[in-house]
Amino acid sequence: MTKQEIEYAGIPVGIVIPDSGRLKFIAVKFHVHSLDGRYFSSVDDVLSAIHQSVSRSDGRWSSLTMS
User: Fold this and answer.
1) Whole-model pTM?
2) Is 43 helix (H, G, I), strand (E, B) or coil?
3) Which domain of life does the protein's organism represent (predicted)?
C-alpha cells in the first residue's frame, strides 16, 4: 500500500501513510487535527475514529460541509 487519501462526507480530511506495518494518519483539516500522527491498523479504523471525533465536534463539521 502507498499513501492513501482519506475522505469523510465526501471531503478530503487527511492521508494515511504505511509505517512499520501500521497506518499513520496525517490530518489536512482542522476538524480532525486531534487524530494527526496517530497510528491505526486499517482504513476502517481511521474512518471510525474520524466519525467519533466529528460526532463530538458540536456541529462544527456541518459548517465545513455547508460551505
Assistant:
1) 0.82
2) helix
3) Bacteria
What is the spatial distance between Cα 26 and Cα 54, in angstroms, rounded to a whole number?
A: 16
Position 60 pLDDT exceeds 80? no
Burial group, residue 32, by CB count within 10 angstroms (0-12, 13-18, 19+)? buried
Distance CA 65, CA 43 (A): 22
Sequence-distant (6+) residues with CB within 8 A of 30 are none
CA-closest candidate to residue 47, choices 1, 5, 3 = 5
What are the residue ranges spanned by the domains of the chain?
Answer: 4-65
Which residue bears the cell 478530503?
A: 12
